[in-house]
Structure formats: structure tokens, C-alpha cells
Please model this.
Amino acid sequence: MPSSTTATRRARSRPAGVPSPWQMFFSGFLKHPVMVGSIVPSSDKLIRKMLGPVDWANCKLFVEYGPGVGTFCRPILDRMAPDAKLVVIDTNPEFIQYLRHTITDPRFCAVLGSADEVETIVADHGFEKADYVLSGLPFSTLPPGVGPAIATATHAVLRTGGAFLVYQFSPKVKDFLTPHFDAIDHDMEWWNVPPAQLYWAWKA
Model:
């Protein structure tokens, strides 16, 4: 795993005039509560548990939906191999602009777009499949049809043996996963505000 102090510092830098992560996250929640889903970023314990099952040695492409202010982005980059890539997709141009200003790691790419376009986005970055896809999007409050479309596209873009990692505050998200994934692991993370449902849906 990359562990360069210089690289870490570069990935965490914030140019003058750029809002703090908390300012950005709170502003994003107020403007787009249906898409952000929470008023505070995920806890460190949730992040560690969610990413725990990932086989980083065999991960070349990691995709995240709804990265927000990059709460998961930095821990993912810290764990990824030097030749791997992290592509994040968000419909909020303010979040995308913020991430492009604050994360300069060459393995990182922030895309303005919709999660249901993931197959096209992955192909545009030179990959046939993704190894893992992470999502904190609030499936139960998305507009009608969007959740099923995202679940369908995600299953299609994952390689065999890959996984869709989902953290939610409602167990209803499993209704979107079961039509596509036979093997679904579940856990809870109580040390989060609010407590979160964690799912790992594996592609057979």
C-alpha cells in the first residue's frame, strides 16, 4: 500500500479560500437532502468496517457513488495499490469541484454524473469492469426508478467476485440489492450518527 507522507499530505491539502469539509457537507445537505442523506459525514469506525472486506491487492478500480466531501476517498486512497484507480461519481457540481481542488492524488478522478451511468463512466476511463463499488446514496428517498436503475447498472459493471458496498440508515436498501445479488452480508455500525446499516453484496 502507498504510505508516502508527501503523497498523503498532498491528498489532504486544501487551497486557500476552499470551504472546510464540514461547511461543504452541511451546505450540500441543506441544498440536496434527498441525495446526501445525512447531515454529518460517516464515522471512522464505519469507514474501517465498510472497507474491511476489500481485497486491496486485487483491486485495480474502485468506484464510489455520492462521495460528498471525500470522507471515504482518502481512506480508500491510503489503502489502494500504486497502480489502482479511484473514480467517484456525484450529481452535485459543488462537491465535484471541491474534490478536484482538495484531492490531487493522480489515482483519483471525480466525475460529474449519475450513478446509473457507471458502465459508460468506467469504460471512458479505460476499464471493462470495476472491482468494488461503494455507495452511501439514500436509496429509499431517491426519485422513483433511480434506485433500481443504479442497482442494475452496478451489478452489470462489477467483475465476478467483486462487491457492491452499501451503507444506509434504512434496511429498505436490501430490496434494491436482492434482485441482483444472491450473496449479501450485513452488519451494523452503532458508532455513527445515525447508526448505519452496512451491506456487502457480492457478484457470483
